[in-house]
TrEMBL record:
NCBIfam families: dprA (TIGR00732)
Entry-linked InterPro entries: DprA, DprA_WH, DrpA_SLOG, WH-like_DNA-bd_sf
Similarity comment: family membership: Belongs to the DprA/Smf family.
Residues covered by the Smf/DprA SLOG domain: 6-216
Pfam families: DNA_processg_A (PF02481), WHD_DprA (PF17782)
Domain DprA winged helix: 231-271
Single GO BP term: DNA-mediated transformation
Source organism phylogeny: Bacteria, Candidatus Spechtiibacteriota
Listed name of the protein: DNA protecting protein DprA
Amino acid sequence: MNQKLKIGDENYPQILQEISDPPELLFYRGNLDALNYKYAIAVVGTRRCSEYGREATRAITKELARAGITIISGLARGIDTVAHETALESGAPTIAILGSPLGDKEIYPQQNVGLAHKIIEAGGLLLSEYKPETPSYASNFPQRNRIVAGLSRGTLVVEAPLKSGARITARLSLEYNRDVYVVPGSVFSRLNEGSHDILKQGAKLVTSARDILEDIPQELLLKRAKAGTVPALLNNEERKVLELIGEADGPLHIDKIIQATKLSANDVAQITTLMVLQDLIKESSPNTFIVIK
């Protein structure tokens, strides 16, 4: 059942009121407490994404979610879907901003009604400024992108053609003085023409979640569990790295972690960055780690 949130209401997001044209009225389904996040990143991109785009979105979104970042996207096919699904798989709430009404028979695209239910069941939120029975005009979707950008402290772009909603969201984020991050791609693919144009406008190039997490104050990130325990959100690879560092006789260099775990250098770099930000380990010297007791 749709509920309403008016601008000026106690629960209306303050961050959204900072933009030049916030919606006067928002309809929502799900857990309104999902808006009480410490930090949110929007993840946007093309509906017709490549496997490279999917994998980049999964890898970066997973680490952001595990660090306690709320993931915001638009429930569209392609990159949006991957971002929402990855957040849910990582045990993090996610917020979907729709360009259609929120009723099951009105959600666009219809193929993502099941995903919308999963978001709600996991404590996330669906938002729209469109009342029930409003037609889903094409113009609705660029309009809703201002809400995606407005609710987020930063926007991550993965595969944006020159004419795309993702490029519009990035432009709005820059106008709102928010951070914009872009995953680079092939110069021969039209899927990346908009992404590379955004980079020329001053966005930050990112190749891992580390490039985003380093810009976020550590006090806003998910902290570790009690000393001596392993956080439940760590996956098997992350647990393996943590145990390896903890069992070492002294500080352990990243090269030895890579050699012992057989993980890629990029995977180990992302894992160690996440655990540093969660106060599980610290660098005793460059690329050398010890467990925080």
